Amino acid sequence: MHSIADVWNNVLRQLKNDLSETTIATWFDELEAVDLCGTTFFLYCPNEFKRGYIESLFLGNIKAALKDIFSSDFEVQILDEASLDAFWGGEARKKAGDRFTSDEFTFNTFVVGPSNKLAYAACVSVAEHPAQNYNPLLIYGDSGLGKTHLIYAIANVIRKNDPSAKIAYVKGDDLTNELVAAIQAGPNKAAEMREKYRQADLLLVDDVQFIAGKKQTQEEFFHTFNNLYESGKQIVLTSDRPPSEMTQLEDRLRTRFEWGLLVDVAPPDFETRVAIVKTKAAMLGMDLPDQVTYNIAKNVTANVRQLEGTINKILAYKDLLGSDADEETVARAMQDILKTNNEYIPTPDDILEYVCKYYGQEREIICGQQRMRAAVAGRQIAMYLIRSMTNLSVVDIGKLFDNRDHSTVLYSIQQVEKKMKRDPAFAETVKEMKTNINARH
């Protein structure tokens, strides 16, 4: 086995047989593998709320995954900060790996291409001159394109330039969970939480779109944002869409998010994907033949995370099975990654074809100006599905529907989202439509 991190990567792959991608992304993202001592597997989780939830619901899944890998029973312990310090004799940060000082998440290891050049340049500027040029900085784009890598790189530079800098990092959904837990624990805990974020020199919020629609979280974040901004502290946010498309975000927050600079990251082109594969392989000590590199870059196109996952899979085959990085091994690795991550992205035509059949309407009716009830319902659903299942912007979606204005598209999406919240049966119908569209591939 290459390292304890590889053991954990293999555990995560096994977990995908029983748990959904959403469950793993939500609850396991902060877990770090610490050590494997005898028949005990040690993990570290800095988030108290998530640690308790995993221990109560998912410990059995982790044990089962370890048994599948090693054909032996293992105990699992999830350590908090204090117990990790004790475990390592006070070297918790060094052993667990502080991402803000890690050599893995730096500007040097970030592969720059046309799809992310502006975002990269903006992040370098913020890192070198925090709160002077772009505040806040909001990086948006689909999952797996390097947004988190960039904000870690910012923190990395600031930490090196000023080791005493207070850096606070949180994910949007964790902010809500933390706030709920703090409120339940009483006023002292809530005050302690506010202090942690409002005393930061650098605040990093990943996936900030998750606070949209959560009234109390938005209220708290509004005051935290103002406090930091007025104190001349740097704020960096990431999201999967620009603020104008966060339909449930309060206007006062949307305005503040747009005060500074908005930059997007898009899927990398072929040349950038080749560079990413070469860089990742070199970091893991592998020398891939050019043909193998090109084969991966040609076939794995959705995001950087899948490219890295393919390389990790090849490494696992090499370490666990002694397989060479030949065409057969690469094909197996890519097949596993594409199957696990469902790289298939339906086209707008795929979605429109399904919606038209579902509502029994011609495409000209769904995309046209008719106001019949079925046409309007199908049109709004189609806009929502195209926005949530493809990379099309609201402007481009509007062009598909008789050149409608982007504000009309946003309104339609918002209407669907509102109905899904108040009508569970309708929400289930939309979910089923997504499943059926993907199943047609």
CATH topology of the largest domain: Rossmann fold
How many E strands? 8
Principal-axis shape: globular
Provide a count of the helices.
22
Instruction: Report strand order across the widest sheet.
Output: 5-6-7-4-8
Rounded radius of gyration (Å): 23 Å
CATH architecture classification of the largest domain: 3-Layer(aba) Sandwich
Query: How many structural domains?
Result: 4
Main sheet summary: 5 strands, parallel
Terminus-to-terminus distance:
36 Å
Mean pLDDT: 82
pLDDT under 50 segments (min length 5)?
89-97, 339-343
Keywords summarizing the entry:
441 residues; alpha/beta; GMP Synthetase, Chain A, domain 3; Rossmann fold; Helicase, Ruva Protein, domain 3; 4 domains; five-stranded parallel β-sheet; 22 helices; 8 strands; 9% strand
